[in-house]
Here is the input.
Amino acid sequence: MKVFYLGRKSKYLQHGGCYEVDHLTYLYTYLKGLRHPFDCNMFKIAPDMAVVTPYRVAKPAAPKPEVKLTLGEALIKKMQGRIGTCSFAIEFDNGQYSLHNTAPCHAGLSYDRDKGKPVRVFNALKGYANDNNRANLIRFYTYICNESPWRIAFEEPFTPEMIDSGVYLKVDTPKNILVGACIAMRQASEFPDRLTMFIRLLDLKYSPNVAFAAANLSGRGSALVAREGSGHDIIHRRMNFDELVSFFNNDMFKEKGKPYNDSPGYGYEIWNSIAKSKNIYGKLEGDEIKGTVFGHVMSFFKPNELTIKRGWNDVVMEKHPAVTGDNALLTMANILAKEIK
Here is the structure.
């Protein structure tokens, strides 16, 4: 007698399979070739022409080996809408990833030697763009990655698709330049007003270098503001003006540091890699400000022509028509454009 198996697939039987009965008891069905008793209710009688199914079900195919995500893919997967001021990741020569999806800054790019030696660094851009700023961010990132002095830190030129896929940086780049490139990139997302000013100046046909410098030095753009310099600023008023000009015009980095992949431990010199700074916190006039960005800007105005006051982390100069309201950004850009290409 032949029967169809009605139960779930098991080690020996498959659902709907046809098997030959050896003998029956009141409660159990015994199949030919198998010693294990089966519940009679799990079978129904099959017609004589039914083809008997082999007892052992073929082993399922071995699962495909799991494909390891790339460094960028792993970080983007971890982000899932959870981002910080910046999101970046490091891959070490032992295959381990260090993923920072909610970082407040790029300080986490510093690493301990016992983690291994970095072989790749990834900076995520996905999550910072939306329908309103996407086109402007593409223009900004194109400048940083392809045209600015920091372009030497990136593995390949920026293309619009990378606003979703992110960018990789060359780990043999000097540490100060690599970290500086990352900080320069986040100026647009951390300080949206700087992105707005940068785009405005580009549209007015100022050079990208001038647009970037003016947008960063002008602060909020409502009055002529020379940034005092916080850890999240890339350039500020206390820098040597001539060295800042040389940085933009000649790609002249100063204190570069060792290659990133050979520089474990915390610490980097972003400002000093661009231009030396003077300790003129709170200084608004006199010989001490000479040679600085602030002193250079002030040289375009007569004494007592401006009202100068210190705000949070910046120096605001107002009262004169050229440095108030909508004119402030253009005034800064025009001053810088006399020297910066």
